[in-house]
Predict the structure.
Amino acid sequence: MGRATPLFLLLVIACADGTNDQPARQLEASGTFESDGLTIHYESYGEGDPIILVHGWGTDIQFNWVVPGWVEALRNERQVIAIDVRGHGESDKPLQQELYSYQLMANDVLNLMNTFGIERADYLGYSMGSFMGAFLLGHHADRFNAMILGGIGDETEESVATASPIADALRTEDPSTITDPDAIAYRQLVDLDPRNDAEAREALALAALQMWPEGFPVMLGGDGLRNAAVRVLIVNGQDDIPYAQTVSPFVNAVPDAELLEIPGADHFGAVFSPVFQEAAVAFLRGESSPTRP
């Protein structure tokens, strides 16, 4: 795919309301759909009302949702539909940095829903998927019944500054030369997937450089957050730095938001927490009552 022109980007943004005049397709257990000229991979599990799962940066459906037991926990509650976000897993990996804005990636979720005739759904996101959810909540709340957003808060000057060494770490051919502790951790995460060759790592580097500076959920959601008639559960590990310390503005901006903090969990660990899974299932059943700060 060639470098996007300004006209192309304007057309993409203009279509971000998710309109689609094509007839709905049938969901398969595994398949793809087209979104903004990209091929996006999805997996579907179980039956019932749909819930859309959107993973974190550097992972995919399997690592974020199948391995930690999320699919197994949710498939008896909902029809679980998970996507590999552009730049990840089996989805296309464009090499244009601007194509990894949260707004454009969130549009892939709307195109999934439109392609398969899903008028409304529940939503579960983690990290990157949660920031995409914040945009959807503020701009397309009418498409969602409930949202569970984990691993989210405001970036800080320090956390935004980590994007550059992380990108450098992904671009090096010799991981032993990486010295920045955060960069080492993220390179190790990416290297867990043997599909992540040099080109895939470059796509992830571009995504990091675009996403990290955009990581402010109230700004992503905009004024629409205050009018979003959607139940929202926000979940962070108590040791998730900086999000555990910076999430309050987002919680307070959403009328029907609750916050759950998981003791002893950091950003990477929270998604594997049974406490998180149990709270999510209870929330979807309308049973949970986390304490709002």
About this structure: The mean pLDDT is 92. Strands lie at 30-35, 38-45, 50-54, 79-83, 121-126, 144-150, 231-237, 257-262. The two ends are 46 Å apart (CA to CA).
